[in-house]
Amino acid sequence: MRSQSSGSSPDADPAPHDPAPEPLGPGSLTWKYFGGWRGMLFGPWAGSMQNMHPGLGAGVEEHSEFFDERWERLYRSLYPIYGVVFDGPHAAETGAQIRGYHNTIKGVDAKGRRYHALDPDTFYWAHATFFYSLVISIEWFEGPLTFEQKHRLFDEHVQWYRLYGMPMRSVPSSWEAFAEYWDHMCRNVLEDNKATRDVLDLSNLDRPPFLRRFPEPVWKLVRPPVVRGFLWLTVGLYDPPVRDLLGYSWSPREERIHRLVGRAIGLGNRLVPWRYRYHPRARAGWDRALGRIRADAPVVHTPGRNLPPAHRRDSPVHYSPKVTHRNRTNMTP
Questions:
Q1: Closest residue by Cα to residue 277 from 285, 269, 265, 268
Q2: What does each C-alpha distance from 228 to 45, 97, 105, 312 come to in angstroms?
Q3: Distant-in-sequence contacts of 11-15, Cβ < 8 A, 24+ apart
């Protein structure tokens, strides 16, 4: 296993003889568990784990304006991320679009190391965090997975990754190899850097979109305990080597409480009507599969309220579809 990004500008196209990648479908475990709103709780974990990769963290520090519009960026990014799983025949096109947003993200970091967002090791690390967040979220919310389920989810994550059109040489060969890869990355590759600390610094977090009518003075009063709670949840999700790297302590008592909190959230999620547990892009995938909307219905895009600021909308690094304030999928009669 390579310990860090090579920094080269790779040819991201698959080999000419490779068959076209098959999208995942409703029979997969990934469709069952991915794309839910409860996954929003893993946002700080996923962002910080990704940014601890040297190449990815450097790209964020030097090219990203995420922290200028934290909620909007998060909300709109979920649409293409979930689309690679739930867009059916359009999934490979969505994957290619995501790959394209990374073409120009390259440079030399503060330590003199070259990086490129399309370096296969770097790009795969981002995907690995999405996959592993799915695994640990299932176990946190639902309970332990069997080895058969872990192997099945691993195979599905490989199928999912093929849809990006990236070289496959960075992908481990099995679930067991992935576990070794993940441990190696946590112990030997990840770094404590500014991009990671910026993700974890929620001290100025604005009200989430669904609380826009919540009085701002009251939000400023409740924000500190909310922020501490989010950070505590995130620290509990880290592997021990990552907690050590970032300087966090964790007790057996906290571990027990953390597991109970996750299970309570999982049980509460079951009270939500099934379709509405899913993000709109994921829900649209299920609706196509179940015949609630036309099989050829266009993919659902983020509403206009989540778009980047007007002066950034033509940038090739941004997902910025031409949409109005509200954007609904057409339903069949």
A1: 269
A2: 14, 36, 32, 32
A3: 11/167, 12/99, 12/118, 12/164, 12/165, 12/166, 12/167, 13/165, 14/162, 14/165, 14/166, 14/167, 14/168
CA distance 126 to 187: 17
Distance CA 118, CA 103 (A): 7
Burial class of residue 291, CB neighbours in 10 A (0-12, 13-18, 19+): exposed
Would you say 230 and 202 are in contact if contact means Cβ atoms under 8 Å apart?
yes
Q: What is the dihedral of CA 320, 322, 323, 325, to 10 degrees?
A: 70
Query: How many whole angstroms separate alpha carbon 7 and alpha carbon 114?
Result: 5
The pair of three-digit structure tokens given for residue 1, joined into one six-digit string: 């296993």
The two structure tokens encoding residue 243: 């907690």
C-alpha distances in angstroms, 129 versus 113, 118, 302?
Answer: 23, 16, 23
Extract the tokens encoding 182.
Answer: 């993940």
Its pTM surpasses 0.70: yes
Contacts of 4 (CB under 8 A, 6+ apart): 54, 55, 113, 121, 189
AA letter at 218: V
Q: Residue 206 has what pLDDT?
A: 87
pLDDT digits over 189-224, tens only?
999 999 999 999 998 888 888 888 889 899 899 999
> 86 and 281 in contact (C-beta within 8 Å)?
yes
Q: How far apart are CA 231 and CA 226, in angstroms?
A: 9
* Bridge partner list, 100: none
